[in-house]
């Protein structure tokens, strides 16, 4: 057989990883275009008639533009947090909702309200970030201490820890008569978003840049402590860094928007099914799909019973629960 034919056969038999991990592909550009279209639809969706009222354009820039920007930033933040957590724990069923991280953020917010009668947004963010970091580290330490036979037990443990923290928050709220603040936080909604109340979400861009910088090390950390150490990566340090970035993103979202369940579970799993576990190449996809998912849910929440509005957490929780069950059944079928 001629040599050139042999070389051609060998090349065709090798997996084409370059095209698979390439970011700027036609599907990715199409996904960006779809998200832009969804953003335009979001800008012109709402009960207030911005075209027929005299102050329509003022309301457009006061409420509609900030809301759409908050949707995009929040979708990227929660999806990235889920992706990083799944890499660190080596478990696809892990995200801020299933690890108790979001409940710890709520407890931090509640304690800030108790210590400071009228806390600023910066104080609320600080409390949420610190407590989400502590809660996530407790969850990770618990996983390292306990040997689990099934990956399905991991999210169950996280939900149990989250339920305990939620019960503590409810008790403290009843004692200090702060239950209204807890109820407002548990109902994640973009209705209160306006100029002056969402700007801290722009820090998410910095978090995205940092995650992209350390993407390779986080991917190696996802292979386990032994492999990471053999490859020259300080496992504990990179896990601490990843936890800090997750806590920062979740804390900002919790303080500004509230509880957004299952967003970090849906998007990373869909991306990983088709693209594998390379964080650097998956991160843009996760951000874009996260933006699109939460924007679709928010548009539905604004139109399903117009002129009233359903909290977006209700739509996300319903869709996320269905996807969570599908993932569980898929893992069982593969086994």
Automatic annotation (TrEMBL):
Top-level taxon of the source organism: Bacteria
InterPro entries reported for this sequence: ABC_BtuC-like, ABC_transptr_permease_BtuC
Transmembrane segments: 28-48, 69-88, 100-116, 128-146, 152-176, 200-218, 238-271, 283-305, 311-329
Family that this chain belongs to: Belongs to the binding-protein-dependent transport system permease family. FecCD subfamily.
The keyword Transport is assigned to this record: yes
Topology of this chain in the membrane: Multi-pass membrane protein
Compartment(s) of residence: Cell membrane
Record keywords, A-Z: Cell membrane, Membrane, Transmembrane, Transmembrane helix, Transport
Organism the protein comes from: Paenibacillus motobuensis
Protein name (record): Iron chelate uptake ABC transporter family permease subunit
Pfam family, one: FecCD
CDD domains: TM_ABC_iron-siderophores_like (cd06550)
